[in-house]
Amino acid sequence: MRILSVLMVLVLSGCMSTEVIPQGPTFNYSKQHSNDKAVAYFYQFDMPGVNSCLLVGINDKYEGCIGYPGFAKVMVEPGNKEVSFTPNAPIKIANLEFEFNFEAGKEYFFVYQLVGQKSASDIEIKTQYNMLLNSTYGWYLVEKHQALEEMKELRAWHNAI
């Protein structure tokens, strides 16, 4: 019973952390990228139920962390990759993941949002129902001009992965 109690405290510590607000630089778009890799931007304004930065994993390797609200810029080798999102807690369990085929030299902009907030041009990548909030949230691929407008006030996480 004691071991179970300790495990619950460790799991909840990531969900109850107060370090969620990014303190890094404000988003600044630059088109200077490598032609042999893809560039993926992941951003969000809210992640209900998670109160720590959200680790962005590419094929099980953490490449960035997103605060609330915040963004992460990730350089990705081309090909079909598993993208996962995991609260930065002592016990790391991905709470949402999807596969995506990245092309070298291309830019991708993914936003996490309520399904009801998506625009007609947003492409659904992966959604899930949040029972606690009685709502469905998901990751959407959005057009560049929309993303650049939405991201201009967002900050990066203060510690690079």
TrEMBL record:
Superkingdom, natural source: Bacteria
Protein name from the UniProt record: Uncharacterized protein
